[in-house]
Design brief:
The protein has about 325 residues and is an alpha/beta fold. The chain has helices spanning about 15-25, 40-45, 55-60, 70-80, 95-110, 125-135, 160-165, 165-185, 275-290, 300-320, and strands at about 5-10, 30-35, 50, 60-65, 85-90, 115, 140-150, 185-200, 200-210, 215-225, 230-240, 240-245, 255-260, 320-325, 330. It folds into 2 domains: about 5-115, NAD(P)-binding Rossmann-like Domain (Rossmann fold, 3-Layer(aba) Sandwich); about 120-275 and about 305-330, Dihydrodipicolinate Reductase, domain 2 (2-Layer Sandwich), CATH 3.30.360.10.
Length: about 325
């Protein structure tokens, strides 16, 4: 960075514990504001404390919104209207109307929004994207993603679908974004979901089917289970030339089973990169901001992922598939 960049981190909850140390690795000056928890967060990782949201906004070049989903639209809007660029934790907003409004505000203010879809920076998924781009597996046919873990009981707002959007908008949106990144635009979405709330214990699961403009089909499964469930991810991407797969429970990176002549199979370390994906993400955002270039994740990527996830939620309530138009609005079909 040519000069010191000041980032105002808004929020001090679970995801802020990843954002703050990542921001500090970039050399930025970071000020933190939250209704609660900011002093403890700064004691643990560093940075400064702001006395109010307005104070943080006043000194910032960039505002990093790391708060519950239902607050994203209001905080990001305030930052954009104040002339600040925004790092916005996924999902970019809770409703389709809010997504559209942020799209409008970003265009009108000329300020940029960088959505926090950090899974694009995990080596197993970055390697998958490169392998698909290079047609290692040929033309894509079927993609399958699974993401599961314990229900996030650490914060009560996760259990309120009106605030969090539930498992599809909060957890499965990661794989929805990766599917679109890998296989292209989505034209039709259908989904089913089940939630069990028994004596305060919440379990939630969903299956989402995406039909891409390319003709490829993606199946995304997500589970929020009991507290003892370990967090795991996996994928299997099949095409005319073979299969690319990964399973975190098998402690492997990407595995390529492809036909000879399809190019060298990709490889990725079995463990995560030595650099935190969150650090890679925010460094990419700040670099792109300074250079006037696109980051690996653009606002439109985050907007489309949210619109697809919201269409999937609609499908779970209506029992009907939802068609997506060119700007993300859903219609039953």
């Amino acid at each position: 960075m040519s000069k010191e960049t000041v980032v105002a981190l808004i929020g001090a909850g679970g995801i802020a514990e990843f954002h703050l140390p990542a921001l500090l690795t970039t050399g930025a000056r970071v000020v933190v504001w939250s209704q609660e928890g900011a002093p403890e967060l700064v004691r643990r990782f560093g940075g400064e404390i702001a006395g109010s949201f307005e104070e943080a906004l006043g000194v910032a070049d960039v505002v990093d919104v790391a708060t519950p989903t239902d607050t994203h639209h209001a905080l990001a809007s305030a930052a954009l209207l104040a002339g600040k660029d925004v790092i916005l934790e996924k999902p970019v907003a809770r409703t389709a109307e809010q997504v559209s409004d942020l799209r409008r505000l970003s265009a009108e203010t000329g300020r940029r929004v960088f959505p926090g879809h950090v899974v694009r920076y995990f080596p197993e998924y970055a390697t998958l994207h490169a392998a698909v781009r290079d047609k290692v597996a040929g033309e894509l046919a079927v993609l399958r993603f699974v993401r599961s873990g314990a229900f996030p009981a650490r914060s009560a707002w996760f259990a309120d679908p009106a605030r969090s959007g539930g498992i599809i908008l909060d957890l499965m949106i990661h794989d929805i974004d990766i599917a679109r990144w890998i296989a292209g635009e989505v034209r039709r979405v259908s989904a089913v979901a089940r939630r069990i709330d028994s004596e305060g214990d919440v379990c939630e699961a969903a299956h989402v089917l995406l039909e891409h403009d390319s003709g490829a089909i993606t199946h995304v499964a997500g589970v929020w289970g009991p507290p003892h469930i370990d967090f795991t991810t996996e994928y299997s991407v099949a095409g005319t030339g073979g299969v690319l797969s990964h399973s975190s429970s098998a402690t492997k990176g990407l595995v390529a089973d492809v036909r000879p002549g399809g190019g060298p199979p990709p490889s990725v370390p079995a463990s995560a990169s030595a650099t935190s994906p969150f650090a890679l993400e925010v460094a990419d955002f700040l670099r792109a901001r300074e250079a006037g270039e696109d980051a690996r994740v653009t606002f439109e990527d985050g907007a489309r992922a949210a619109e697809i996830a919201l269409a999937a939620i609609e499908s779970t309530t209506t029992g009907q598939p939802v068609l997506l138009d060119a700007v993300g609005a859903g219609t039953r079909g």
